[in-house]
Amino acid sequence: MKHFTQFENKSLADSLIEKALFYKSNPSIDNALGEGKRIGCIFLNPSLRTRASTQIAAINLGLEPIVMNMDKEGWALEMKEGAIMNKGTVEHIKDAAAVLGSYFDILAIRAFPSLTNKIEDLADFTFNQFVKYSGVPVISLESAIRHPLQSLADMITIEENWAKKESPKVVLTWAPHIKAIPHAVANSFAEWAIGCGHDLTITHPQGYELDESFTHGAKIELNQSKALEGADFVYVKNWSAFNDYGKIVSTDPSWMLTEKHFEQAKEAKVMHCLPVRRNVELSDEILDGKRSLVQEQAKNRIYAAQSVISKILG
Ligand SMILES: NCCC[C@H](NC(=O)CCC(=O)O)C(=O)O
Ligand SMILES: NC(=O)OP(=O)(O)O
């Protein structure tokens, strides 16, 4: 595995999950694997979990992590080929990424979408400029369209909480939010859940259809209570409209899950990647109750990252 940017195939996903669970029981067992190596964690957007868990994972493997909040502490980056840089941008991505590639053995990048330029966002333009010009293995810390480390942690969490032979019924439900939010977490969750063979249903108000290239193979059910019937895992997430790109087309508060929503899914566990807007996206009642797996998911981010870095180091 050179880069880690998306779901590739079930056998790779299974081996990453297995390795992550092994590291969870034996976090320091490979602490010489990355000796003398460095990973650069480059953030163009805020982060709590991804920032801390990726550093812990690297340290567990003996690598030295160096974090740069490039949006705040770096020079303003120019992304466009052939740009005449006589305005706000100071340094071209081809210069910056090449320098970073010469400093680090692995680069890890967070680059959110604009939610205004659909063509560039769908091409994962900013993230791919780092891949193109750095010349080293790149790990996605959430790009414009995917958040694979989150999804890997989510698959690990489902694996740990599911003992039965048959596939669990997994529901991805849209939830209200006050801001226009990226599609990356929802896209990736769908990509990984389908790829890992889970029975996935997606529910959302009309107008919140996701990019079909990520949801192909899932059932779409616009009636949330119908979708929730018999659910084993319910993944809660807001996203902005994809067709009317980046717009908020509903804030209907009835989509926020409370205990009442679980009458037909008594045993269902609830997942969210965090950060969560309490009592907007998800009720306190659910987040603080027995159904919630959110802290387990966040903890598993360490072992997801450790498994991925280990695989890249070979
Ligand atoms: N990395 C996890 C989620 C990041 C991002 N959330 C946010 O931007 C929340 C912002 C807010 O609540 O104001 C998202 O959903 O893609
Ligand atoms: N879930 C997640 O990626 O959290 P952060 O944005 O805090 O890294």
UniProtKB/TrEMBL annotation:
Pathway: Amino-acid biosynthesis; L-arginine biosynthesis. It catalyses: N(2)-succinyl-L-ornithine + carbamoyl phosphate = N(2)-succinyl-L-citrulline + phosphate + H(+). Keywords: Amino-acid biosynthesis, Arginine biosynthesis, Transferase. Transmembrane segments: none annotated. One of its GO terms (biological process) is L-arginine biosynthetic process via ornithine. It holds the Pfam family OTCace. Carbamoyl phosphate binds at S47, L48, R49, T50, W75, R110, H147, P148, L149, Q150, C273, L274, R301. N(2)-succinyl-L-ornithine binds at E142, H177, K237, R277. Residues 12-160 form the Aspartate/ornithine carbamoyltransferase carbamoyl-P binding domain. GO terms for molecular function: amino acid binding; ornithine carbamoyltransferase activity. Residues 185-310 form the Aspartate/ornithine carbamoyltransferase Asp/Orn-binding domain. It comes from the Bacteria. Belongs to the aspartate/ornithine carbamoyltransferase superfamily. SOTCase family. Homotrimer. Catalyzes the transfer of the carbamoyl group from carbamoyl phosphate to the delta-amino group of N(2)-succinyl-L-ornithine to produce N(2)-succinyl-L-citrulline. Is essential for arginine biosynthesis. PANTHER family: ORNITHINE CARBAMOYLTRANSFERASE, MITOCHONDRIAL, ORNITHINE TRANSCARBAMYLASE, MITOCHONDRIAL. This is N-succinylornithine carbamoyltransferase. The lineage of its organism: Bacteria, Pseudomonadati, Bacteroidota, Cytophagia, Cytophagales.
